[in-house]
UniProtKB/TrEMBL annotation:
<keyword id="KW-0479">Metal-binding</keyword>
<dbReference type="GO" id="GO:0019825">
    <property type="term" value="F:oxygen binding"/>
</dbReference>
<dbReference type="GO" id="GO:0046872">
    <property type="term" value="F:metal ion binding"/>
</dbReference>
<comment type="similarity">
    <text>Belongs to the truncated hemoglobin family. Group II subfamily.</text>
</comment>
<keyword id="KW-0349">Heme</keyword>
<dbReference type="InterPro" id="IPR044203">
    <property type="entry name" value="GlbO/GLB3-like"/>
</dbReference>
<dbReference type="GO" id="GO:0005344">
    <property type="term" value="F:oxygen carrier activity"/>
</dbReference>
<dbReference type="InterPro" id="IPR012292">
    <property type="entry name" value="Globin/Proto"/>
</dbReference>
<dbReference type="InterPro" id="IPR001486">
    <property type="entry name" value="Hemoglobin_trunc"/>
</dbReference>
<dbReference type="GO" id="GO:0020037">
    <property type="term" value="F:heme binding"/>
</dbReference>
<dbReference type="Pfam" id="PF01152">
    <property type="entry name" value="Bac_globin"/>
</dbReference>
<keyword id="KW-0813">Transport</keyword>
<protein>
    <submittedName>
        <fullName>Hemoglobin</fullName>
    </submittedName>
</protein>
<dbReference type="InterPro" id="IPR009050">
    <property type="entry name" value="Globin-like_sf"/>
</dbReference>
<keyword id="KW-0408">Iron</keyword>
Length: 139
């Protein structure tokens, strides 16, 4: 048991979601769809430009992060340590528009991959809390 207060970005959905979503293959499909959406959506142009031209490295990291966050294998923290997501995003100006663009891409990715509706709603609520907590430029 972790005696420290859990920061919001590390709050996990109840255990078992990694299996019910379909494990790493399903998470990989969602992350692929997410970055395809980011490449294609006009409202995501600003957040797409924060990333390098090659999305493969960040895709692999996001897959590992989400697998662990959903209760799967802990490859992310084994490789990168504590997520400290707010700190890792501090270099990027994130306001409400950037938060909403990220969430739009994720919602579309979950729809495209036909993620179960109840699971999708639960995930979107959790992603909203994390993305909202990431805001750092006051807009
Ligand atoms: C709120 C809007 C967000 C923006 C604009 C954003 C943008 C970015 C950018 C530009 C990177 C670095 C990519 C690179 O290294 O090329 C990144 C990394 C990452 N993002 Fe986000 N992000 C957002 C929200 C989120 C959310 C909600 C999550 C989690 C659910 C998340 C998880 C991650 C992870 C795990 C990484 C890799 C961190 C690492 O290096 O270990 N991001 N993000």
């Amino acid at each position: 048991m972790n005696p420290l207060p859990i920061p919001v970005a590390d709050a996990r959905p109840a255990s078992g979601h990694f299996e019910s979503i379909g494990g790493e293959p399903a998470v990989t499909r969602i992350v692929d769809a997410f970055y395809r959406q980011m490449d294609a959506r006009p409202e995501a142009r600003v957040i797409r430009a924060m990333h390098g031209p090659d999305l493969a490295p960040v895709k692999a990291v996001l897959v590992r992060y989400l697998c662990e966050w959903l209760g799967g294998p802990k490859h992310y923290s084994a490789e990168r340590g504590h997520p400290r997501l707010r700190m890792r995003h501090a270099a990027f100006p994130i306001g409400a528009a950037e938060r909403d663009a990220w969430l739009d891409c994720m919602r579309a990715a979950l729809d495209e991959t036909r993620t179960d509706a109840a699971l999708r709603d639960m995930l979107m609520q959790a992603f909203f809390r994390i993305a909202d907590w990431m805001r750092n430029n006051g807009s």
